[in-house]
């Protein structure tokens, strides 16, 4: 809870006495002698509360109350009134003061009301923080798009991994965005204020690795396509991980490292060091429902970069996008969005199709995605889609889909 109090009173002896009372109660006190001096301490980022005398030369406590409410309507202001000056106190409460006290103030009553005001302030600030977080989202929400369950699970996995502060292996097919996921892990980690360094594993010398580790000190080093790391550099990285390295190491790979280890192309000790925690990025073909979201996001970026108006994205365009396998994943979809923004499309992409074909394309995409998720097990895929097995097989036959292709 915040403990900051802005105390305003033109009487030096009273100001010093009240300051001492509040400081003895462990409040962080900023004293001011006038409206002019006090207003310089009030901003939208002021986290504390205000305790102000009403009667002051020039602009009084009511003027300060009005100013504070103009800056932040939820900022608690406690007014101090002269003995027996009830009408003025009533006026203060009507104007929106949090509370009022008669001078000379009883120390216990003063600290009690200030504590209550600070608790109220703390609740307001926390609610604002939560609202801002919901509206803007954390790095996972802002940078990892998709509405599918797989996309939701990916974001949650990244959040869990980020908090762990261990080495991480980020797995994903080419173009799936291992570098971006690594950056999100960094941004959500305790070392997010430190540097985020990236380097490609292919051709990385031991000396270059040491330089990268030094540059990433206090932050994160991401090694892309770690399977391509030269043998001597693999040994150097293993030594660094076993020593007192001062950065977090994340490694990305689109290859399954187990065959690399079994065929002695990748150091097994290094593999187990890096594979403390793992994040797998699902391919686009596994989550076709995310394709429209990602495409529209990339299209907005492309239009902003090229200073072009956003073209209309018709249902026909979406159905064609969703019916593709996208072996190039997000990178390929991004390139398509750029071509679409520029009006440069490859053959067949602008050809109009009827509603029947559009629906068939979407249906084909959803069936293929289900089979992909269940490694070609048609019974499990049918169960997930809540379809009778016969209906599921009839659809596969009608759309020319072979379940064994996904095994």
Residue fraction in strands: 5-15%
CATH class call of the largest domain: Alpha Beta
Strand order of the largest sheet: 2-1-3-4-5
Helix/strand order, N-terminal first: EHEHEHEHEHHHEHEHEHEHHEHHHHHH
Largest sheet: 5 strands, parallel
- Low-confidence segments, given as residue ranges, are 346-353
**What structural category do the secondary elements indicate?**
alpha/beta
CATH topology of the largest domain: Rossmann fold
Distance between the termini: 56 Å
* The CATH superfamily title of the largest domain: P-loop containing nucleotide triphosphate hydrolases
Helix content: 40-55%
- The geometry reads as elongated
Number of strands: 10
Mean pLDDT figure = 87
Characterization of this structure:
This protein is α/β, with parallel strands linked by helices and 407 residues long. It has three domains: 131 residues, Rossmann fold (3-Layer(aba) Sandwich); 143 residues, P-loop containing nucleotide triphosphate hydrolases (Rossmann fold); 122 residues, no CATH class. It is 51% helix and 12% strand. It has 18 helices and ten strands. The strands form two sheets. A five-stranded parallel beta sheet has the order 2-1-3-4-5, with helices on both faces. About 2% of the residues have low confidence.
């Amino acid at each position: 809870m915040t403990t900051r109090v802005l105390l305003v009173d033109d009487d030096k002896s009273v100001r010093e006495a009240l300051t001492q009372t509040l400081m003895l109660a462990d409040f962080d006190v900023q004293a001011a002698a006038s409206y002019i001096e006090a207003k310089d301490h009030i901003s939208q980022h002021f986290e504390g509360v205000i305790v102000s005398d009403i009667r002051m030369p020039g602009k009084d406590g009511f003027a300060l109350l009005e100013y504070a409410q103009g800056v932040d309507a939820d900022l608690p202001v406690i007014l101090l009134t002269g003995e027996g000056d009830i009408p003025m106190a009533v006026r203060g409460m009507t104007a929106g003061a949090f509370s009022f006290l008669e001078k000379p103030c009883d120390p216990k009553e003063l600290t009690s009301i200030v504590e209550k005001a600070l608790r109220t302030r703390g609740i307001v600030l926390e609610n604002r923080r939560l609202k801002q977080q919901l509206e803007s989202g954390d790095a996972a929400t802002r940078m990892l798009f998709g509405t599918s369950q797989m996309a939701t699970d990916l974001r949650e996995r990244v959040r869990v991994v980020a908090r762990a502060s261990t080495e991480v292996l980020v797995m994903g097919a080419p173009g799936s965005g291992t570098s971006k996921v690594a950056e999100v892990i960094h941004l959500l980690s305790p070392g997010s204020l430190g540097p985020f360094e990236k380097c490609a594993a292919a051709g990385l010398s031991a000396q270059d690795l040491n330089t990268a580790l030094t540059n990433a000190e206090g932050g994160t080093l991401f090694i892309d396509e770690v399977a391509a790391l030269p043998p001597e550099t693999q040994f150097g990285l293993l030594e660094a991980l076993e020593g007192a390295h001062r950065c977090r190491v994340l490694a990305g790979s689109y290859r399954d490292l187990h065959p690399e280890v079994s065929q002695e192309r990748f150091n097994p000790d290094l593999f187990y060091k890096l594979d403390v925690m793992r994040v797998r990025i699902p391919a686009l073909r596994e989550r076709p429902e995310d394709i429209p979201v990602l495409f529209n996001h990339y299209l907005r970026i492309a239009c902003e970069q090229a200073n072009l108006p956003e073209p209309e994205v018709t249902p026909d365009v979406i159905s064609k996008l969703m019916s593709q396998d996208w072996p190039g994943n997000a990178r390929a979809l991004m390139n398509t969005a750029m071509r679409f923004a520029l009006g440069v499309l490859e053959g067949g992409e602008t050809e109009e199709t009827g509603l029947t074909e559009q629906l068939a394309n979407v249906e084909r995409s959803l069936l293929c995605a289900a089979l992909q998720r269940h490694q070609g097990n048609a019974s499990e895929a049918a169960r997930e889609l809540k379809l009778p097995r016969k209906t599921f097989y009839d659809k596969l036959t009608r759309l020319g889909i072979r379940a064994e292709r996904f095994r």
